[in-house]
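FIELD: query
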Amino acid sequence: MNMHYPLASSIVLDPARTQLLKAMKAAGLNKIWLHGYFYGHMASSLSDMVEAKSILEQLGFEVGIMNVPFNHQGNALNPDDPDMQLTLPDTWKYRIDRHGDPVYYCAEIEANMITDQIAAMEVLRDAGFTDIFLDDDTRQGNWSPEIEGSFSEESIVEFNEKWGRSESRESLSRRIEQKETSEILKEWMIFNSAKVTAFMKAVSLPGIRIGHMIMPDGDERQGLDVVAMQQAIPACMFRVGEHQYSDRAYGNPKGRALGYISTQKHLNRIGKEFAYSETTVFPDRALSADNLAFKAKMAVVAGISNIMFMSGTAVIAEDNWSVIQQELPKLQELEGYLAACEPEFPVHLVYSTHPVYQEPLETPTLATLAGLPVKPVRGTEKTPAGDILLVFGDYKLDEEWEPQLQGYKKVILDAAAARRNPERLNGQGGENIHVWNHEVGTASQEAEAAMLRELLQADEWEFPWLTAGDNVLLVWLKDSRRVLLVNLDEKEQACQLRYSGARQDVSVPSLAYRLLSL
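FIELD: result
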């Protein structure tokens, strides 16, 4: 396991911060990513970066660079810093949204910006920096289920010429607002995603290993086609999105489950070899040290061996690193459990069919918190069928789900999914289609978990699952005949594990884990 953290050169060069750096090292950090090129200017002078690199290497750190190439909407780096420079160079352009308004402070992908970015990469590379991550501002939209992109006049002209269309900003906006599932909107997403991928390719200079920090839950709607990026840059590093940056968002079972599911979504498409976590606190001190450490554990549970702590341009305090240091043995223990074999997920949960449907970004957490060995799947990913497919919510089971849909032993649609897919009902969609006459999300987690388990009790499944206990994640390590139970709740959970006709009672302490043999 390797642990990472972005940091300003000024912090490294400040003699008063030497103890902080030592605390980071004691907490297990291997690599510092110095702030580099921020949307048109260097975050520090090049000489300061080079000096900071030398100091860090003497302390035993590896050193990379983290760039923020496009900038974010608003001040997403440090809202507590009123002096933060946010504006773009005068020679750059702001991205335009579908209403014709500039998206401050996000850059348009255009020739002047790309030229400056390439020049900055050359300077950094020639100064000895060869590993460079691009922050999650490297996209064409913000966190939203809506299809976005660059709606500047130049961009729309280019789209029409490339795809043989005659669209305007108004016509594209109308299609998006009406939630069309037209080929035009699919082409619009391909077009905007290709611009981001081309930018990535342009700045991936010889001698540089590049990475992309994917926005949490991000996909082609925001111009993020990670499969295309991998094809263009085979060794590209990816930080997979987790979200849930504060105690308010993360300090409950649902928030912890959402972070885990967001990670799973991206790992489906990019794999684990080049994956880094997004173990973020934002804004400063919004997430407690204990929750930050738990976030790191959940990244390891998801199978990620590169833990990337982040905090905008604020600095995670020394006392927080002490907590990470205390939890380091547990992080290493978890990594050992997961390194033994690849987890199996025979239960699949629909989180999308195709981005053109503009489906919710927030995925139902019921199955995860009910202790099923589940992972989220998308129709376009063509994931081989498992035992059970759960469709909870307003998701369309169109042709993207063929032919794998028929490979599941049971496909369970809740009431909302049944309303969306009437053509799949009454035997028309196959004998494996079953309707649960309840809409997920309209009752408590505990009540819905009990109802879901009752549905599953009718069959004898060949995988382990919990028949009692709430808010406990189950990871099936099939080849080593073990299961890992992780309690996402702040109270102890009494669970019952069912597998191969046998039942096993087990108690999992608050925010702890248990490894059981089958």
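FIELD: remark
The CA atoms of residues 242 and 259 lie 4 Å apart.
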